[in-house]
Each structure stands twice: as C-alpha cells, then as structure tokens.
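Regression check, S-adenosylmethionine case 318:
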Amino acid sequence: MSEAPAPARGRSIHNGHDRPAAGPRRLRVGEAWNPRNHVTLFPGDCRRLLAALPAGSVQLAVTSPPYNLGKAYERRVRLQEYLDREREVIGACIEKLRPGGSICWQVGNHVDVGEVFPLDILLYPFFAERGLRLRNRIIWHFEHGLHCSRRFSGRYETILWFTKDTEDGEYTFELDPVRVPQKYPGKRHFKGPKRGLPSAHPLGKNPGDLWIIPNVKHNHPEKTVHPCQFPIELVERLVLALTRPGDLVLDPYMGVGSALVAAALHRRRAAGAETEAHYVAVARGRIEAVRRGTLRMRPRTRPVFVPPPDTKMTRRPW
Ligand SMILES: C[S@@+](CC[C@H](N)C(=O)[O-])C[C@H]1O[C@@H](n2cnc3c(N)ncnc32)[C@H](O)[C@@H]1O
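Current build output:
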C-alpha cells in the first residue's frame, strides 16, 4: 500500500486530473491467450480463456457479469443455476490472481417478478469462502436508467473490491494516481507546529467509496451498441489504483472491452472474453483507436452535466 503525502521529485504522477497523452503506440493484439500479447480479445466463453491463463498471472480481475435479467446477450435461468455458474467463474478468476492482486465485481440487482435480489450480497460468500478480503464496497451512483412505477428507481450499483493478500498481508493500492480535487485546497492547519501551513494534500484527496460517474447512455461520447458498458473512467480508477504498468488486467465478461481499453491506455496488459461476436468486433475497434490515439472518451474532470434552467427541454410544458 502507498499513501505517500507528496510525490517524489521528478516522478511523473497521474493524479486523476488528466489522461495519458494521446498518440499512436505499439500494441500487439491477439485472439488466443499468449503472454506476449498486449491485448487478448478472446471470442468465446470466459471459462475457456480462464483455463488457458497461467495460475498467478493476473494482477486485477475486473468485470460486470450478466445479471440474469434476460437481456439480449444472456439466457435467463433459475437464480440458483446462475449463482452456480458465477461461483465457478469467480473461483477460476481467483485461482489466476497473483498474491497482492485484486478482484472487482461490479453488479446491480437481479429482479424477478418485481422482487429485488442484490447480487453483491448473493455473490459475497463466493469470494470470502476462498479467503479473499473485502476492502471496499463501492457505491457507483448515476442519474439515468429505467423509471420504476412500483418501487423507487434504481440509481446505484456496487463494486465489491476484494484482495488476495501476500503472505505478509500486503496488496497493491496506489492512492496518488486516483486522487481527486479537494473542495477547499486552500485550507491551512489552524494549530500546532504546522499552524498556517497548507493542510490539503497537494495531489488531491482520496476519492472515497461513493463514485458519482455518469453511466453510458445516448449522448455519452463513449456510447457503442452495447446496452450496459462501463464508463472508462470507472474502470480506469481501479486500474490505476490496483495495478502497475505491465501488469495483466482480466475482464472475463468484457462486452465492448472498456476494461481492456482502460488497461491499454495506461500501459497495462489486458485479456478479456466475450461470447457475442459483434461486441468483440467493437472491442477490437476501440483497442485500435487506443493504438492510434483517437479513442473517444468523456474527459475525466468534466463535472456531471446540470441542464440550464430555461431551455425548451427544462421548461415545464404544462
Ligand atoms: C454486463 S456486460 C459487460 C459489459 C462490459 N463491462 C463493457 O464495458 O462493455 C456482460 C457481457 O458478458 C457477456 N457474456 C455473457 N456470458 C459470457 C460468458 N460465459 N463468457 C464471456 N462473456 C459472456 C455478454 O455478452 C455481455 O456482453
């Protein structure tokens, strides 16, 4: 873990206020697992990719699995059958994790005849039974989604962040690259030997465990054909905090490859699996855009949009 109070002189710190310089870069991309690939886009069932990965090769497994809701890309099955399959995939991911590595499972609710089943509660035992430690249960809050009529509309999902510790109880956590601006950076110590000196951390504050990041809907610059893709910013924060350059990031349910994009942007290696060929094709295109330095992304410091009050859309028509 590192929570250094100030950056070492001359060290380049990427502290959440900008993105890596865009520009072409060399990226070796393949479909089958090969440790020499920078990016592996496996077109098929994640269990087959997982079987090919060496034990202890993955620094971060980060994903959002299907929620068993019967979306276009999944077959709805009995809840127990779904949980059994998730347990198998989670177990395989943990086996491939390196000591000191992390696993982040981003989930919402399974819903059956209006009854809500929070997936993080149901999946938690599959990590704990294998000795992983929960470090944060991050709330991801967003504004847009379905409007419910018989319960309150869902406006958050969670990320369970677990670590597989080393024998000394250590794990990778780099806070500096993901610090965010303070509300009062000019604050000063008001007593003691540091009285009058600035008290805020020069790189910003810990982002906390409530993340307000817009979900990817129609006007979002990252929108693709996928109905529920990660905003790059969400997974980028995990990549920057929980891995180092050269580490391997795995997304077993990669969709259109947002986690792999975040990894490639920050010079991590990445591997993902996806059963739908058209999503794999989109993921390939996005990785190609990273390679060329032309990927469309929402700027990381852009505040959440608040519409101006007196426009055609915000004026009440009745
Ligand atoms: C919630 S989406 C993930 C979206 C992803 N986070 C992104 O940013 O695009 C889950 C994805 O898992 C895929 N999927 C479902 N079962 C799978 C399996 N057994 N192996 C690999 N992918 C699978 C689905 O087609 C879907 O695209």
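Comparison notes: The chain has one domain: 29-183+198-292. The longest strand covers residues 97-107. No diff flagged against the previous build.
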